[in-house]
Amino acid sequence: MIGRYFLDRALRIYPLYWLALTIMAILQPQLFPVSELGAWDTFLVFAGFPFVVSPLWFVVAIIQCYIFAPFLYLIYRKLRCRRYIVFNLALAVLVLLTSEEYAHVLSLYRKVMTFEFPEPTIVLYRGIFLGNVLLFSLGLMLPPLIRLYGERMRSWAIFYMCVFSLPVLTLIVRYDSLIWQRDQLLVEWAYYIGVFCFCLMTMVMRPWLPFGGTVKLLGRYSYSLYLFHDFLFQVLIMLGLFEDILPVSLAIVLALFPLLIWFCRYAERRSNAFRIWLSRFLFPA
């Protein structure tokens, strides 16, 4: 089952990822200089190896989550919900200590070790050591938390507090040098908590959201939109249609955005068809 899980995730991620890297090598060779990287480094980027810098870095973060996912799920099955919450809290403390000291310890190890350690930019996700995996682990708690404590958490006041705090925390994280000049790690943790609480309370309260249909459409193709949205801007820049005049450029992007959605929809359908065919071929009923 674990082998089939990894195959299914690989077929979901890699075809579109490889297509995006190929387009990037053509349109943005400065970001993905295949001729300068060499065959081995290019292979590692295409493989999405967890501790290799990729021009599409978020895909590597997703792959890290999927590698850890079966083990986190087994731990959750073993501990059950309440003890799994304690496990995540203990993991968060351990990650906090590791994140605080990683860069310092890295410099010390390099003086005495001959092999390389991953760069901080590779393992510190928004300042947190493997923070994307930690968020993934926290996300596993959402369904059981809602099942066990959903009725007790129903409060519009808490929901609106979460709605207000998330953009505030996002602004602070984005511009922490202007607001929080001392402890960036503390800001990152506050942001993580804000994201988790917002998701939790939104799932508990199920509010009506404006533009719900548009949000669902974007969510359906969020992976391909992430991979290909920048190419829309690159094509417009090459054609001289993306200038500094913001209203005009914004109008052009909005006008062409349905074309990007169509391309993402087509790419997703082709990728899904290939995944279904290969799964049936490898695992016949």
Query: Structural class of the helices, strands and pairings?
Result: mainly alpha
- Calculate the terminal CA-CA distance, rounded to whole Å: 15 Å
Major sheet summary line: 2 strands, antiparallel
Question: What's the number of helices?
Answer: 12
Which strand order do you get reading across the main beta sheet? Answer: 1-2
pLDDT averaged residue by residue: 82
- Helix fraction? over 70%
Given as residue ranges, the uncertain stretches (5+ residues, pLDDT < 50) are none
User: Using DSSP, what is the number of strands?
Assistant: 2
Helix-strand pattern, N to C? HHHHEEHHHHHHHH
- Give the overall silhouette: globular
Strand content: under 5%
- Taking all Cα atoms into account, the compactness measure Rg is 21 Å
